[in-house]
Amino acid sequence: MQDLTGQVAVVTGGARGIGRGIGSVLAAEGATVVVVDIEAELGQAVAAELGGLAVSADVTDRSAVEAMAGRVVDELGRIDIVCANAGEYPFASLEELDEQTWNQVMDLNVGGAVRTVQACLPAMRARGYGRIVLTSSITGPITGQPGFAHYGASKAAMLGFMRSAAVELARSGITVNAVMPGNVSTPGFAETSEEHQDRMLASIPMGRYAEPEEVGWAVRFLAAPEAAYITGQTLIVDGGQVLPEAPLG
Predict the structure, then answer these.
(1) What is the pLDDT of residues 135-191, one digit of tens each?
(2) Catalytic residue from among 89, 151, 209, 229
(3) CB 129 within 8 A of CB 173
(4) Most buried of the four, 26, 75, 103, 143, by CB within 10 Å?
């Protein structure tokens, strides 16, 4: 597989967790990584580490996302890869799940991905080339978790968006795919309860959580020039978590 030298990769939520893992892999493979994150200072530090560009932007703000894409094109001249990764997963039982929390999660996880794709699309269309990779999850499209109905709904919705977008862009040289991680060793996951973490670990045949970079390598495959004939598809990265027919002993 050819390296990504000369390509520009936009990674939202790129300052920590899975986003940082994606950015580190793409940078190692030669891409100039644009770390897009609401945490400006951390984003600057990560971008410096990766030799890329940091842009502070809230993906729930359309004008901010459009300004981000404009700055990337102005400073780097192109956008080849878009990794719509920004998201959150606050715990909320069905009884506790209020309209504000529901709307917040859907606006960030789904709306943020849509805005990011829309903002970066003109630069891709202009060159007749692009690789769009969404960070979905096994939770929602395949599995369910108590307390994460809103999160699961958002991740399933991302795949509905992906499939129609892939069809719409199929003859433009732009592909749209998604990775579906299981449980990944991130700061956000570390904030979940010990009971939740133990239960998740027990359900993974490989007996460990994913490292963020392992999700990054899946993204790197879908973002490759060689993946030109793959669109509207998902790649599960879960250590076999969705495979067992019964709880692991």
Answers:
(1) 999 999 999 999 999 999 999 999 999 999 999 999 999 999 999 999 999 888 888
(2) 151
(3) yes
(4) 26
Active site residue 89: no
- Report the side by side order of strands in the sheet with 130-135: 53-56, 32-37, 8-12, 81-84, 130-135, 174-181, 234-237
Give kind and range of the element (H or E) at residue 125.
helix 112-127
pTM of the complete model = 0.96
**Helices marked H in 51-107 — which ranges?**
62-76, 99-106
Please give the DSSP secondary-structure letter assigned to residue 44: H
Tokens, residue 96: 């506790």
Tokens 């919705």 belong to residue: 157
CA 177, CA 202: separation in Å to the nearest integer?
A: 29
Token digits for 241?
């978590």
d(CA 24, CA 85): 14
Q: Tokens at residue 92, please?
A: 């909320």
What is the rounded CA–CA span in Å between residue 138 and residue 112? Answer: 19
